[in-house]
Amino acid sequence: MGKTTRYRFREYHVTAVADPMALPIFEAVCVTGEERNCAAASGELHAPEELTRWIAGHCAQTGHQSYEQTTRTIVRAEPGAWQ
Predict the structure, then answer these.
(1) Residue 33 covered by a domain
(2) Contact 67, 29 (CB under 8 A)
(3) What does the pLDDT read at residue 81?
(4) pLDDT beyond 80 at 49
(5) Is residue 47 part of a domain?
(6) Chain-wide mean pLDDT for the chain?
(7) Is the pLDDT of residue 13 over 80?
(8) Has residue 60 been placed in a domain?
(9) For residue 37, how many other CB atoms are within 10 A of its CB?
(10) Which residue has the higher pLDDT, 58 or 15?
(11) Of 13, 59, 73, 77, which has the most beta carbons under 10 Å away?
């Protein structure tokens, strides 16, 4: 018979903290459409107000009301203690 090996795993706690040197990125894509999405995109913006302004402008020009919004932030992992 073979030897049984048991592994014991501990949990490692990590806290993700926003990197203060990196600007967040906000983007939106227009997903209005029945047969296919409009797909107009805002591009990368660095303030939520800029994104809101882009969405409002696209909506005013086209009447489109559905958007997929993405927010990206660079975070740093700050390791905690083993549990």
Answers:
(1) yes
(2) yes
(3) 58
(4) yes
(5) yes
(6) 88
(7) no
(8) yes
(9) 14
(10) 58
(11) 59
Residue that the structure tokens 């990590």 belong to: 14
Helix (H, G, I), strand (E, B) or coil at 79: strand
Q: Is residue 30, in this structure, part of any structural domain at all?
A: yes
Q: Cα angle at 62 between 60 and 63, to 5 degrees?
A: 70
Encoded amino acid at 67, one letter? Y
SS3 of 49-79: HHHHHHHHHHHHHHCCCCEEEEEECCEEEEE
Residue 39, amino acid: A
The residue with tokens 């409009």 is: 38
pLDDT of 18 reads 86
- Report which of 54, 42, 46, 51 is spatially closest to residue 74, judged by C-alpha positions: 46
> What's the domain count of the chain?
1
Reported pTM: 0.71
Domain that holds residue 29: 24-82
The beta strands (E) that lie in 19-66 are given as: 25-30
Separation CA 59–CA 30 (nearest Å)? 9
Answer yes or no: is pLDDT of 10 > 70.
no
